[in-house]
Amino acid sequence: MNSLRIARAAAKATGAVRTLQRRGYADVAPDKIRLSLALPHQAIYKSQDVVQVNLPAESGEMGILAQHVPSIEQLKPGLVEIIEEAGGSKQFFLSGGFATVQPGSVLSINAVEGFPLEDFSPENVRNQITEAQKIAGGSGSAHDIAEAQVELEVLESLQAALK
Amino acid sequence: MSAAWKASGITYNRYLAIAARVVRRSLKDDKRLAAERRGEMDLRFARWDNGKQGENKNLAEANEKAFAEHAKADGGA
């Protein structure tokens, strides 16, 4: 009886050691950040470990590394840069959305549209800029002018990113 | 400092829709055609009075009209 109790205690002790050493499924490596970049119709990154993410936040450009303080940032239409584990970096132009830094190096970015730069046509951008400038400077309704100004803001950011 | 679009009465939802539309239109032509289909909305609604269905209306057009009237009322006040 006594020997059984000792065996059980020993098993309990090794179990405790094992849980201390084990890295759980949800833990992120100490120098990585787990990124999800999701659009309504597609997930570009799905819980993938990356090294750094640079965001065009409304409060300014910011770089997110591992162990960042939890925060919520509204994104401007602009370029998101992702530095991957292998050392290469990828760039996507997002139309605006939100980035949420969660505790434990987890980052979620939500946007309506996002594409790599090579998918854009500089000519289409230029044509739209001249059109939006015409409306913004014209004598349309205040509503139309405001919408054209939003378009201009996005297009100018896109044109700067394409250069 | 508040954004200019907010000051002119555009909602955040509308702002996102405009930004997304512009991004879709800026794509190379093959991708643009596939992407622009995502921006289309064709919801219709009808008002029912005394058990009878009224006229079928396009939601996007009705919204646009309501917004223009709202802006005009704001400007007059």
Could you walk me through the main structural features you see in this protein, from its secondary elements to its overall organization?
Chain B: InterPro entries: ATP_synth_F1_esu_mt, ATP_synth_F1_esu_sf_mt. The complex is a heterodimer of chains A (163) and B (77). Chain A starts with a helix and ends with a helix. Chain A has helices at residues 2-21, 122-137, 142-162, and strands at 33-39, 42-57, 60-64, 71-75, 78-84, 89-94, 97-102, 106-111, 114-116. Chain A has 163 residues and is an alpha+beta fold. Helix content of chain A is 35%, strand content 37%. Chain A folds into two domains: 33-118, ATP Synthase, domain 1; 120-162. In chain A, strands 1, 2, 3, 4, 5, 6, 7, 8 and 9 form a nine-stranded mixed β-sheet that branches. The model of chain A has no long low-confidence stretch (mean pLDDT 86). Chain B has 77 residues and is an alpha+beta fold. Chain B has a two-stranded antiparallel ribbon. Chain B has helices at 4-7, 12-25, 29-36, 59-76; strands spanning 44-49, 52-58. At the A-B interface, helix 2 and helix 3 of A face helix 2, helix 3 and helix 4 of B.
Quick rundown:
The complex is a heterodimer of chains A (163) and B (77). Chain A is 35% helix and 37% strand. Chain A is of the alpha+beta class and 163 residues long.
Helix content of chain A: 25-40%
Overall radius of gyration of chain A:
24 Å
Instruction: State the helical fraction of chain B.
Output: 55-70%
Q: Which regions of chain A contain 5 or more consecutive residues with pLDDT less than 50?
A: none
Q: For the report, how would you describe the main beta sheet of chain B?
A: 2 strands, antiparallel
Q: Kindly estimate the percentage of residues of chain B that lie in beta strands according to DSSP.
A: 15-25%
Q: CATH superfamily of the largest domain in chain A, called what? A: F0F1 ATP synthase delta/epsilon subunit, N-terminal
Number of domains of chain A: 2
Annotation field: number of helices of chain A: 3
Mean pLDDT score of chain A: 86
% residues in beta strands of chain A: 35-45%
How many strands of chain B? 2
3D shape of chain A: elongated
Distance N to C terminus of chain B: 24 Å
Q: What is the 3D form of chain B?
A: flat
Encode the helix/strand succession of chain A as letters.
HEEEEEEEEEHH
Q: What value does the Rg of chain B take, in angstroms?
A: 17 Å
Domain ATP synthase F1 complex delta/epsilon subunit N-terminal (chain A): 34-106
Domain F1F0-ATP synthase subunit delta C-terminal (chain A): 120-160
Main location (chain A): mitochondrion
Family (chain A): Belongs to the ATPase epsilon chain family.
